Every structure is written in structure tokens, then in C-alpha cells.
């Protein structure tokens, strides 16, 4: 359940720069706002009512299921950049042909999963998603094979991953544009759940929305749920992370921080001569070799 490309679609932005050629820089400093952007955020003080927020939480799964009902498998682009951005998907092997076990937490319809399985024949993947409809789309994909993949429906905030995955058995967990869809008060439950199935010394690979991403600045005040937390028109929600918040979140659940930085990019609409600033947060967080 991720919406990186969805944001561009909802904003009516035509992305003409490719993932490889687009301007990109990484660092620990947040994007600097223009005076107009700073004023807009300062004026966005009214929050969605508590009644509506509780309703959104209750209906979170239904809203994601409706999202996939409307968009089928056609909404997101396949992600062919994961092995470039996350070298651990290859480097964590102890020998060349070692079979890796990965978990894609929040797999959507398989836009990250299937490119990985195609690129690397020595991967077995567990994959789960909040939406039962998304899981069914994965199972119907021509590339899906039970010999290489096990997919299942899971609410990562409450359904125990140990029901489907052995403890301490996963080499790499990908958490890509997933945690932002979870209420901030429940994010720690996701990380705690993942911790149980990750092998000691292995990493969670994280990428999600960063503070002051263009999508955040386009929200109206009537869509604000809390600090850096917003709801889209379709009822799905999005949180925008700071490096400080993400660091505290992982460390509180026992992970060690390896990398945690902003990725700043520009999406270009050449037809309208428009440059749009995108901000993501990218990180690697390791489960310690031994408990202290």
C-alpha cells in the first residue's frame, strides 16, 4: 500500500524525468521552504474532527480495498530501482548463489516484488498487504509462483507475522511507501512485528515520504489530521517523515540505525514548464546481533 506515483497522478503532474536521469541529492537537512510555503503551513491549524478521524481509522482497510478496486493493477509503475538504491539486496549474501529470504511488508499489487523476483532468481519472498484485494491481484499475476513467493493478507499493526513466517528467518525486509499510511500512534507496532521475523544482524530497508514533499504542500487545511499527517480525498492517509522522528521510532523498538537521510528530487512537467520538489526519506535499520 504505497502511493509514490499516486501523488504525482493526483497532482496532475506529468513525470518526464526518469528514475535514473532525474535530479537527486541526499542529506540530513530538510528541504528549505519558500516564504509562501512556510506561510501556508503556518496557517494550516484546523484539524479534521475527532469523529471523522476515528471513522478513517476504522475504515482504513476498506478505503485501501476500494482504492485497488478502482485502480486495479494499473496505477503504480514497477519499481526497478530498488537494487540500485539498496545494495543490501545483493551485498547481504555471504556467497554468490546464496538464496535470500525477503519480506515485502505492504506489497500492494507487486510493483516492487515482481521486478525483484525477475532480477534475482535466488530470492524467496514473503509478501503481505493490508488490502485483501491487492493480495488477490498478486496471486493472479502470471509471475506469481508458490515455489518462490508466499503472499498473505496482514494488518501489520495487529496480525502476528509469526503466523506466516518463522522467527528470525528473514534476510531483508523492505518497507517502501507503507509506514506513511499507518496512524503515527501505531507505527511502532509495525516495526515490533517485523523485528520478530528478521534475522539478527539483518536490515529493514525503508523509503517513504519526507517532510515538505510537494504532496504535503498541496493538501488543504481541511485534510490535516495532525502534525505532518493528512488524508486524501479517497480516505487513504499519508504521513510525512522527518529523520528525527524515524530515528526515534526505529531505535525505540531495538533497531540500530545504519542510514537515515532525505532524498530530494525534482519531477519535471516540460509541457507546463513546471518543476516539482519531491522529498523522500530513505533508511537502513539493523536488528542487533545480540540482545542487550
TrEMBL record:
<dbReference type="InterPro" id="IPR029063">
    <property type="entry name" value="SAM-dependent_MTases_sf"/>
</dbReference>
<keyword id="KW-0539">Nucleus</keyword>
<dbReference type="GO" id="GO:0030488">
    <property type="term" value="P:tRNA methylation"/>
</dbReference>
<keyword id="KW-0489">Methyltransferase</keyword>
<keyword id="KW-0949">S-adenosyl-L-methionine</keyword>
<feature type="domain" description="Methyltransferase type 12">
    <location>
        <begin position="103"/>
        <end position="201"/>
    </location>
</feature>
<comment type="function">
    <text>S-adenosyl-L-methionine-dependent methyltransferase that mediates N(3)-methylcytidine modification of residue 32 of the tRNA anticodon loop of tRNA(Ser), including tRNA(Ser)(UGA) and tRNA(Ser)(GCU). Interaction with SARS1/SerRS is required for N(3)-methylcytidine methylation.</text>
</comment>
<keyword id="KW-0963">Cytoplasm</keyword>
<comment type="similarity">
    <text>Belongs to the methyltransferase superfamily. METL family.</text>
</comment>
<keyword id="KW-0808">Transferase</keyword>
<dbReference type="Pfam" id="PF08242">
    <property type="entry name" value="Methyltransf_12"/>
</dbReference>
<keyword id="KW-0819">tRNA processing</keyword>
<dbReference type="GO" id="GO:0005737">
    <property type="term" value="C:cytoplasm"/>
</dbReference>
<dbReference type="GO" id="GO:0052735">
    <property type="term" value="F:tRNA (cytidine-3-)-methyltransferase activity"/>
</dbReference>
<dbReference type="InterPro" id="IPR026113">
    <property type="entry name" value="METTL2/6/8-like"/>
</dbReference>
<comment type="subunit">
    <text>Monomer. Interacts with SARS1/SerRS; interaction is mediated via tRNA(Ser) and is required for N(3)-methylcytidine methylation.</text>
</comment>
<dbReference type="InterPro" id="IPR013217">
    <property type="entry name" value="Methyltransf_12"/>
</dbReference>
<protein>
    <recommendedName>
        <fullName>tRNA N(3)-cytidine methyltransferase</fullName>
        <ecNumber>2.1.1.-</ecNumber>
    </recommendedName>
</protein>
<dbReference type="GO" id="GO:0005634">
    <property type="term" value="C:nucleus"/>
</dbReference>
Amino acid at each position: 500500500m504505497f502511493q509514490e506515483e499516486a501523488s504525482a497522478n493526483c497532482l496532475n503532474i506529468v513525470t518526464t524525468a526518469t528514475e535514473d536521469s532525474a535530479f537527486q541529492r541526499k542529506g540530513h537537512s530538510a528541504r528549505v521552504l519558500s516564504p509562501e510555503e512556510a506561510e501556508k503551513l503556518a496557517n494550516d491549524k484546523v484539524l479534521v474532527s475527532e469523529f471523522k478521524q476515528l471513522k478513517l481509522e476504522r475504515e482504513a482497510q476498506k478505503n485501501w480495498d476500494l482504492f485497488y478496486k478502482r485502480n486495479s493493477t494499473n496505477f503504480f509503475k514497477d519499481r526497478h530501482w530498488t537494487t540500485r538504491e539498496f545494495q543490501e539486496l545483493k551485498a547481504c549474501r555471504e556467497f554468490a548463489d546464496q538464496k535470500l529470504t525477503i519480506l515485502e511488508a505492504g506489497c500492494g499489487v507487486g510493483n516492487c516484488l515482481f521486478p525483484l523476483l525477475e532480477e534475482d532468481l535466488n530470492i524467496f519472498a514473503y509478501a503481505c498487504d493490508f488490502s485483501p484485494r491487492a493480495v488477490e491481484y498478486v496471486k493472479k499475476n502470471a509471475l506469481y509462483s508458490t515455489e518462490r513467493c508466499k503472499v498473505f493478507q496482514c494488518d501489520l499493526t495487529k496480525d502476528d507475522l509469526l503466523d506466516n513466517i518463522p522467527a528470525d528467518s528473514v534476510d531483508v525486509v523492505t518497507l517502501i511507501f507503507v509506514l506513511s499510511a499507518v496512524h503515527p500512534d501505531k507505527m511502532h507496532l509495525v516495526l515490533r512485528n517485523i523485528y520478530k521475523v528478521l534475522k539478527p544482524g539483518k536490515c529493514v530497508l525503508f523509503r517513504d515520504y519526507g517532510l515538505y514533499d510537494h504532496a504535503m504542500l498541496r493538501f488543504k487545511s481541511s485534510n490535516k489530521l495532525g502534525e505532518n499527517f493528512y488524508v486524501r480525498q479517497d480516505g487513504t492517509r499519508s504521513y510525512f517523515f522527518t529523520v528525527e522522528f524515524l530515528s526515534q521510532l526505529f531505535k525505540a523498538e531495538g533497531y540500530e540505525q545504519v542510514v537515515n537521510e532525505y532524498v530530494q528530487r525534482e519531477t519535471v512537467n516540460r509541457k507546463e514548464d513546471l518543476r516539482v520538489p519531491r522529498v523522500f526519506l530513505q533508511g537502513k535499520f539493523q536488528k542487533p546481533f545480540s540482545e542487550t
